[in-house]
Amino acid sequence: MRNTLASALLTAALYATGANALDSSGTPVVVTLLASKTTTASGQPITLPQENVEVQVSAYQIAPGATLPVHKHPFPRYAYVEAGTLKVTNVETGASNTYKTGDFIVEMIGQWHQATNIGADPVKLLVIDQVEQGAKNTILKQ
Predict the structure, then answer these.
(1) First to last CA, the chain
(2) What's the CA gap between 116 and 63, in Å, rounded?
(3) Which among 9, 112, 113, 138 counts the fewest CB atoms within 10 Å?
């Protein structure tokens, strides 16, 4: 048991530092830290649901020139930009951020915003939501 715990802690430490590790057959596994964030895109501290957390993973594809409706998220949402260029604007403050392939987004919580594909190619996002079980994480502005 003690060896298992030590092995798990070592593996976690290797992943956290972005170091190389070995799989069970001795084959190298390369771990590259892509992002480390403690705040949302608008500077808010990241806060998680307090009960019955559900993780939802979705793939988004946004056509060139498309603009999503104004919306907000009551729970944390994270997105990895697999392709394209996306401009996200906080409609409450007017502040905008532009994200491109390889960027990691920690979306603002409880603030109205919208996103536009400002590139010539589709935007592809891998989106991860952490919500209270059964809840939706997008509220459209009426």
Answers:
(1) 55
(2) 9
(3) 9
* pTM metric for this prediction: 0.77
Q: What is the pLDDT of residues 6-48, one digit of tens each?
A: 344 344 444 444 455 666 777 888 888 888 999 999 999 888 8
CA distance 101 to 85: 7
- Burial readout 10-35 (b: 16 or more C-beta within 10 A, e: otherwise): eeeeeeeeeeeeeeeeeeeeeeeeee
Coil, helix or strand for 33? coil
> Which two three-digit tokens encode residue 57?
């993973």
Predicted confidence (pLDDT) per residue in 78-102, tens digit? 999 999 999 999 999 999 999 999 9
Sign, CA torsion 75/92/45/103: positive
Q: Which one, of 94, 97, 98, 57, lies nearest residue 79 by Cα?
A: 57
Q: Which amino acid would we find at residue 100? A: K
Token duo for residue 14: 């290797």
